[in-house]
Amino acid sequence: MKKFNWQKITGFLVPVIIFYFLIRAVTANFAAISEFDFNFRYFNLILSIVFIFFNSLLAALILKYFFLHSGFYLRFTDMLRVYSFSQLAKYIPGGIWLYLIRFRYLSKNVSKESFVVVSSLENAVYVLSGFFLTSFISAQIFTTAKFQVVAAIIVITILVVLLMPKLFYFFINLALRALKKDGKNDFKKIGRGPLLITLLGSSLNWLLVGIGYFFFLSSFLPVGFTRLPWFIAVFAASVTAGYVFVIAPGGLGVREGIMVLLLESVFGLEIATVIAIATRLWSAISEALIAGLISVFSKNKLEK
Asked: I need a surface site. Which of 71, 162, 206, 215 has the fewest CB within 10 A?
């Protein structure tokens, strides 16, 4: 008798349930939504995709920087193609396909141990920088002493963690020893200096994609630049929360639920729900478009 895989079942049910209630909210309030003052600006939509492209450039550069400090030199153009193409796999259930695709293309140029280390550090810095930027921006918006103390604690904790890379390598070593029969690990450790640099780079990346998110919203909603920091924080918080919930592919459903909660006070439940669903489509289509363009205009083919 086969055992139930509760992780897969939960990873399937959670997005389905969340999307069910989101779509239900849209259909139940369709009349109110249709009366909303949508004003489409195609230039802003194009500009939002441009910022997603800059986001991909910087993300590929950060990944290249990680591998460089692990002892492996990779061409930026190759890293950009691997990154942009593998991003599309994050929507496949299982959560591992993105890394399998990356390793398939990079296995001839990097060691297995270094690939695991870089992937682990990339994920850690990505999540920490998301919380870092969200806390920092929120502390500027919400000026109550209690909130600013909480935000300061989060920021300081993240900096302390990055200043103690031994914490990362302790868990990485445990994972690698479990995977290898001889129990020996052979990889170059990345110091706290490069980790702090990647934190700043990743935080800048959140700013880029957050600005893209703002221009996407402004392409069909009347939003002013005064709310730009707030929208950057909303996007970073919702995407990071979805990323941490690893059993949902690409944070599917979780990201949308958090985004609705954060935007409801500004736009109301109906419009916030439309924004959350539209943002998912915008992200997926933008990433697919960028990956396609990079593949078309790349002169050299990647070796598998």
From this structure: 71
Residues 160-215 have pLDDT tens digits of 776 777 777 776 777 666 656 455 556 677 777 888 899 899 999 999 999 999 99
Q: In a 10 Å sphere around its CB, with 0-12 CB exposed, 13-18 middle and 19+ buried, how is residue 237 labelled?
A: buried
CB 201 within 8 A of CB 61: yes
Q: d(Cα 304, Cα 301) in Å, to the nearest integer?
A: 9
Asked if 77 and 297 count as a contact pair (C-beta separation under 8 A), the reply is: no
Q: How far apart are CA 102 and CA 87, in angstroms?
A: 9
User: For residue 252, what are its two tokens?
Assistant: 């599917």
Q: Record the tokens describing residue 182, joined without a space.
A: 């001889």
Q: Both tokens of residue 51?
A: 């910022």
Scan for tokens 């990743």, then name that residue. Answer: 202
Domain layout of the chain by residue ranges: 56-297
Contact 38, 274 (CB under 8 A): no
How many CB atoms are located within 10 Å of the residue 178 CB?
Answer: 8
Classify residue 220 by its DSSP letter: T
Q: How much is the mean pLDDT over the chain?
A: 78
Mean pLDDT in residue range 69-87:
88
Amino acid making up residue 109: N
Q: What is the pLDDT of residues 48-72, one digit of tens each?
A: 999 999 999 999 999 999 999 888 8
* C-alpha distances out from residue 285 to 41, 174, 262, 288, Å: 18, 38, 23, 5
